[in-house]
Amino acid sequence: MFDARHTARSGPLTLLYSRTDRKYIRFGFVVSGAVSKNAVVRNRLRRQLHEIIRFYLPSLSGGYDCVLRTYPDIVGISYKDMKKHIEIILKKSAIMNDRSKHSKLEID
Known about the structure:
- By secondary structure, the protein is of the alpha+beta class.
- About 30% of the residues lie in helices and about 25% in strands.
- The chain has one domain: Ribosomal Protein S5, domain 2, CATH 3.30.230.
- Strands 1-2-4-3 form a four-stranded mixed sheet.
């Protein structure tokens, strides 16, 4: 079981995170059956979240275990909005470095 020491939330996403002794950061994604009964929808959301986190990974501090949890209202939002919510969460949690190359939101 994951023991989250801290949380940060924005819209339909919550980040649960805890400091570790590792030099790297680890992420897990929870998209439950409450979000959608359709596995195709849940897996697509999981892939999108993974891709967004991969985009921000170079600007994140090491030494954290993180779980990104979704809520049912995520199904209706766009990829662009999902990316905005994740950036807000990462900044709230102070996991994102201040000198990051992603300090300005870069959305295609």
